[in-house]
Amino acid sequence: MKLGSALLLLMSIATATVRAAPPSEDPLILEADKAEIDDKKGVSVYSGNVKLSRGPLTVNADKLTVYRDKQELKKVVAVGNPVHLHQLATATTKEIRGEGQRAEYDPKSGDVLLLQNAVLFQDRNEFRGNEIRYNVTNESVNATKGEAADQRVRIVIHPKNSDAAPAQ
C-alpha cells in the first residue's frame, strides 16, 4: 500500500468520526498490534488492542475494520469485549462515553450504532439497551431493547442543575 493512500484513509476516518466537533488540527493516532490494508478491496483491518484517537475522541477495540470506496469512507466497524468510545466535551458538544460488544459508524448519516449490552452516557444522562444509535451531528439518541421478553431499555435523565452522581 502506498503511504499517501494510508494517510488519506486515516485522515478521512478521523475527519468523519469527529464531524460534530469543531475542525481539529490534532493528529490522528492509531495504535494496534497488527494492521492489514488492502487498497484494491477498500478494506483495512486493525487488530489487537486497537486505539484510535484524535482531539477529543478516543475509541478502544479489539478489532477495527474500515470500509472505503475510492478513498471515500463508507463504514467503520469496531468489535471488542467491549468497544469503548469516549469524546470529551468541547465548546459545541457534550461529553459522550459509550460501550458495546460492537460499534458501527456510518459517515453518511453520522450515526454511531452500539450493539449488544450497549450503554451510552451523554454528559451524566444514561442510556442502556441492546442497541443504541447516537447521531454525532445532532446529538440524538435512540435505544432499543433486545429480543428477550425481559429485556428493556433503561434511561436515566438527570436534571440540569443536579449534583447527583450518575446511576450505576
How would you briefly describe this protein structure?
This protein is mainly β and 168 residues long. The chain has one helix at 3-17; strands at 29-31, 34-38, 43-54, 57-69, 72-87, 96-106, 111-122, 125-135, 140-144, 154-156.
Features:
lipopolysaccharide transport protein A fold, 1 helix, disordered N terminus, about 55% strand, about 170 residues
What can you see in these coordinates?
- By secondary structure, the chain is mainly beta.
- The protein has a single domain, classed as Lipopolysaccharide (LPS) transport protein A like domain (lipopolysaccharide transport protein A fold, Sandwich), CATH 2.60.450.10.
- It has one helix spanning 3-17, and strands spanning 29-31, 34-38, 43-54, 57-69, 72-87, 96-106, 111-122, 125-135, 140-144, 154-156.
- Strands 1, 2, 3, 4, 5, 6, 7, 8, 9 and 10 form a 10-stranded antiparallel beta sheet that branches.
- It is globular and about 50 Å long.
The CATH topology turns out to be lipopolysaccharide transport protein A fold
User: Do you know the CATH architecture?
Assistant: Sandwich
Which percent range describes the beta-strand content?
over 45%
* Rg of Cα set: 16 Å
Low-confidence stretches: 1-12, 14-23
H/E element sequence: HEEEEEEEEEE
Task: State the end-to-end CA separation.
Answer: 45 Å
Question: How many strand units?
Answer: 10
User: Percent of residues in helical segments?
Assistant: under 10%
